């Protein structure tokens, strides 16, 4: 068997055997297969796809390439929640303490932001002192003691995905349903939770640009989960405009805290409440409406925020030390009308280029910069009224670039639905 035979086979749109996939993945992890050979195979997969059997085998091979976390020492059902990535997506920061405040165990390993999407770990690290790199023993103890721990992936969790994902990111091979499904599910399965909840984002700011692809990805991940007897539920949610108002690390943490105190933006709240009530239904078998009432109670009585404070303190952070830049630039609308579109992808790119994200894995993030929208899709804006605030440091603001993210018309178009489907 040679890697060239395997590349040629996929180039000709033929099904790869488990042994061939194993040869390619393990050979790449062991540095026997070169970057240029792996990227050629990945591109053949992007173009010709993989069937379900190939994708399940790829997931299994990647999953077994490193450590598999054993969470059996945690008492109770452990939940992991993941997002396929969006702009302004601070859902985990609200959902995790909210569920933990109701006694549900959240043991979550999160990633950093890459491309135009943010990552939970970067957001948490914008809180001074917050330590996302705790030992596995402390991780387990903390979940047993306070029901929640949010940490970064350990060094040897799915090393095959780490290496392959970094290559995909720079070779135009991210956007492939079997590659995304196996990448996400190998990490979720290796992280050891009992229930996997995935928020599949769809729209211009997401990896999946249309609902059909989002449904395909969700169904595939649910099938992979089932093949390991791990209940996996996918919620498909709209990512045409940023979620909530804030984009950028500290700004998003502040918005999450306000949401935990009962003052959150309605779209963020809708996604959080829908995901939480599905999880509560799966763990405690409580009907949807009862779950929602419980959740609102925790937001309004301060318990959800108290749990977030407890999480921050336990991981060494100082909740009073979340800084945002004091150099703030207000951008006003150049016309009056209804806001029919806000380009999430472009605003995500702008925030990244201000310093809120990375262009390469080694770039340093500036936690204090970002954007705060003053208007959302469906709102009316007057000429010269503020559309958005830009929190900057050294970089200049390109006003026309930001204005070009908004579609403002005389007539209001239909407002897209936020929650699009549940697949389980
Ligand atoms: N997130 C992942 O973890 N992997 C992908 O391939 C895409 C998004």
Percent of residues in beta strands?
A: 15-25%
Radius of gyration: 21 Å
The total beta strand count reads 13
Q: End-to-end span in angstroms?
A: 38 Å
Structural class: alpha/beta
- Helicity range: 40-55%
> Globular, elongated, flat, extended or rod-shaped: what is the shape?
globular
| Tally of helical runs | 16
Q: What ions, cofactors and ligands are bound?
A: uracil
Name the average pLDDT.
95
Write structural notes for this entry.
This protein is 45% helix and 16% strand. It is built from 16 helices and 13 strands. Strands 3-2-1-4-5-13 form a 6-stranded mixed sheet, sandwiched between helices. A 4-stranded antiparallel sheet has the order 6-9-11-7, with helices on both faces. Helix 10 links the parallel strand 4 and strand 5. The site of uracil has 9 residues, from helix 9.
Write the layout of secondary structure elements.
Elements: H1 3-11, H2 18-29, H3 35-48, H4 52-63, E1 78-83, H5 91-100, E2 105-110, H6 120-125, H7 136-146, E3 148-152, H8 159-169, H9 177-190, E4 195-202, H10 211-227, E5 232-238, E6 246-247, H11 249-260, H12 266-284, H13 288-300, H14 303-314, E7 327-332, E8 337-342, H15 344-356, E9 370-373, E10 380-381, E11 386-392, H16 399-403, E12 406-409, E13 419-423
Parallel strand pairs: 1-2, 1-4, 2-3, 4-5
Antiparallel strand pairs: 5-13, 6-9, 7-11, 8-10, 8-12, 9-11
Helix pairs in contact: 1-3, 2-4, 2-8, 4-9, 5-11, 5-12, 5-14, 9-10, 12-13
């Amino acid at each position: 068997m040679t890697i060239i035979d395997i590349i040629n086979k996929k180039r000709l749109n033929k099904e790869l055997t488990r042994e061939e996939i194993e040869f390619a993945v393990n050979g790449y992890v062991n540095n026997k297969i070169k970057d240029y050979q792996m990227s050629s195979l990945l591109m053949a997969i992007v173009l010709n796809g993989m069937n379900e059997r190939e994708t399940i085998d790829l997931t299994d091979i990647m999953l077994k390439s490193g450590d598999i976390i054993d969470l059996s020492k945690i008492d109770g059902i452990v939940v992991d929640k993941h997002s396929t990535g969006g702009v302004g997506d601070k859902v985990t920061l609200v959902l995790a303490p909210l569920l933990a405040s109701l006694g549900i165990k959240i043991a979550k390993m999160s990633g950093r932001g890459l491309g135009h999407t943010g990552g939970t770990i970067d957001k948490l690290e914008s809180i001074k002192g917050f330590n996302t790199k705790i030992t596995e023993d402390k991780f387990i103890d903390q979940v047993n003691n306070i029901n929640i721990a949010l940490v970064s992936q350990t060094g040897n969790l799915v090393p095959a995905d780490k290496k392959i994902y970094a290559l995909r990111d720079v070779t135009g091979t991210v956007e492939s349903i079997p590659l995304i499904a196996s990448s996400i599910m190998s990490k979720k399965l290796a992280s050891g939770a009992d229930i996997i909840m995935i928020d599949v984002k769809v729209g211009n700011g997401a990896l999946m640009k249309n609902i059909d692809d989002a449904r395909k990805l969700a169904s595939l991940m649910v099938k992979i989960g089932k093949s390991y007897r791990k209940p996996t539920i996918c919620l498909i949610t709209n990512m045409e405009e940023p979620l909530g108002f804030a984009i950028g690390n500290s700004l998003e943490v502040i918005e999450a805290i306000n949401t935990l105190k009962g003052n959150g933006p309605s779209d963020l709240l809708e996604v959080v409440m829908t995901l939480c009530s599905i999880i509560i239904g799966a763990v405690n078998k409580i009907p949807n409406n009862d779950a929602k009432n419980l959740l609102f109670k925790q937001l309004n009585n301060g318990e959800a925020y108290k749990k977030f404070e407890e999480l921050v303190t336990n991981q060494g952070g100082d909740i009073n030390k979340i800084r945002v830049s004091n150099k703030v630039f207000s951008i006003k609308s150049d016309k009056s009308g209804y806001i029919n579109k806000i380009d999430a992808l472009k605003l995500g790119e702008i925030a990244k280029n201000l310093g809120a994200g990375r262009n390469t894995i080694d770039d340093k993030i500036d936690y204090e910069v970002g954007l705060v929208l003053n208007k959302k899709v469906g709102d009316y804006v007057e000429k010269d009224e503020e559309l958005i605030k830009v929190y900057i440091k050294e970089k200049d603001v390109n006003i026309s670039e930001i204005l070009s993210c908004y579609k403002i018309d005389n007539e209001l178009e239909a407002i897209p639905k936020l929650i699009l489907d549940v697949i389980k």
